[in-house]
Amino acid sequence: MKSSIPSILLLAVHVSIVCAAWGQGEQDFPTFTTLPLPHTQPFDHLLSFDYYHQRCPQLEQIIHKSLQQWIAKDRTIAASLLRLHFHDCFVTGCDASILLNHEGSERRAEESKTLRGFQVIDDIKAEVEKSCPATVSCTDILTAATRDATVLLGGPYWRVPYGRKDSRTSDQKDAETLPTGHESVTTLLELFQSKGLNLVDLVVLSGTYCPNSNNPFSCLLLDELTPDGAIFVCPGAHTIGRTSCSAIQQRVYQGLNGTSGMPNPPIDDRYLDYLQRKCRCASEEYVDLDATTPTTFDSQFYANLERKMGLLSSDQSLYSDSRTSPIVNALIQTPSLFRHQFAVSMVRLANIQVLSGPHEAGEIRTNCNFVNSYQ
């Protein structure tokens, strides 16, 4: 594994140089033809950037307009879509199986209890069906909406290759394969590699998943609350968001109340003192995951790890583990690399086990909640 680090770093530097060409106009939501092709090609050769040029040329405009309307009503929905997309892709591949709403589906699983954003996708799908009936998959809509949501969070723009089909099945047991937040770097790396992702993707996307409120990856976008309680959401790499004190009790109070040992990985003494004082009396208090720039999509999160200010053990392990620490250092030394690599890693994420082509067992759902045969 150690021998692979130089090649990974070279890849990261190469990506930084290549992606710099995309970069400055992403906030304007370019159309199909205004950006060059990204250097990272889709895994599936049947996906293409011009898949809907003739089939549904107004697709991205419809998605963007609908998403803007939703953000105007609820600015927190953007981060929710990132998590929804991650859940979909990391279970059985990017196939919109998370959107199927029936007894025993992934959507009904315990791991999916705090997911939201389903109505956003339903609304977009309804508008798309008016213009391009039975043409655009729910999977492609979720993928593109996630990209637009990232930009609205202040993140980078990237082009989305299209042509995915929707799954006809969804099983809540499959959701058990999602990371729980307690895994070691080795276990997480094995999981990411099994999905066709690599060590760089692990570091860059490390904060995209938050399975449920009972583990350290449960984090909350600032001010995001519903009548039922907190909605747990994580944009990439814990650069934005916060977690509850209850999720970090073991980390910040090791060595107290009769237990032994110091927090492992270690925490900066002053930061630890702050956390202990803030969380001593109220387990439902919230703490910023990025203690320095908690509301900005940037790479400061990684600089915090260098200062031993990783709030979660799993975060700090990215800096202490010999396999991931060189990548963290590269992101610290070249802050713009995080934005560029985040875009590349999101393209790779969106190509996990996609259904495409005439021979795949998928379909184009006309309602994202149900397979076509049950509508």
Walk me through this protein's architecture.
The chain folds into two domains: 205 residues, Peroxidase, domain 1 (Orthogonal Bundle); 145 residues, Peroxidase, domain 2. The protein is 39% helix and 5% strand. The protein is built from 13 helices and four strands. It catalyses: 2 a phenolic donor + H2O2 = 2 a phenolic radical donor + 2 H2O. Its main location: secreted. This is Peroxidase. Pfam families: peroxidase.
Question: SSE layout and pairings?
Answer:
Blueprint: H1 5-19, H2 59-73, H3 77-92, H4 118-131, H5 138-152, H6 185-194, H7 199-204, E1 219-226, E2 229-232, E3 242-244, H8 249-253, H9 269-279, E4 286-288, H10 300-306, H11 313-320, H12 325-333, H13 335-349
Antiparallel strand pairs: 1-2, 1-3, 3-4
Helix pairs in contact: 1-13, 2-4, 2-5, 3-5, 10-12, 11-12, 12-13
Spans where pLDDT lies below 50 across 5 or more residues: 1-43, 209-236
Range of helix content: 25-40%
CATH class of the largest domain: Mainly Alpha
Task: Quote the distance from N terminus to C terminus.
Answer: 49 Å
Label the structural class: mainly alpha
Mean pLDDT across every amino acid position: 78
Total domain units: 2
- The string of secondary-structure elements, in order, is HHHHHHHEEEHHEHHHH
Radius of gyration: 20 Å
Main location: secreted
Cofactor: heme b; Ca(2+)
Catalytic activity: 2 a phenolic donor + H2O2 = 2 a phenolic radical donor + 2 H2O
Protein name: Peroxidase
